[in-house]
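Input record (Table S2, row 179):
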Amino acid sequence: MVPNNPIAKRHRTPLPQWLTNRPRDRRGYPITYVTAIRPDGLPDFTEVDGARRLECIRDGLCGLCGDPLRYWRAVIGGPAVIRLRLTLDPPMHVECAIFAATDRSAGCPFLLKTGTARYSKPAVPGTPERPSRMFLATTRSHQLERDVSDVLARCAAFKNVWEIQDGKLIPLQGAISCP
Ligand SMILES: [Zn+2]
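Output record (zinc ion complex):
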């Protein structure tokens, strides 16, 4: 099904259900479940809603669409996230994550445009805020973990890891080194 909205018309691609169900900003980009909403009511795509982030990690909800995760789930992050299997961002449905990483109509500026500011916090405390490489990995489960200052998602072993390059997923071979 191709929903009748400007993004779908422009890209002529079917949009996943999560995208069609989420509210959109003025440009038509979907506002994810954890996107922070400013006091004036507009979304701030560079910040996450802390309460919703916690809810997603604790209750197993997708960080993009807010629906319950299924058996397989995905995380997106830099080398440290992949090496430590630890992330501040809630895991996502695999199809939601793939869409966000590969389709311009998902509107994720951090993944689609290099050098774009992201959240004010790094994905793993104590690691670089803006990793030079980004990855998408799938795992079967995650657990809530608390460090001294925050709540994180610790993932089970990854089944597959891809590097995200210019909207494409490149299967990763071999070990990942953290810069
Ligand atoms: Zn989802």
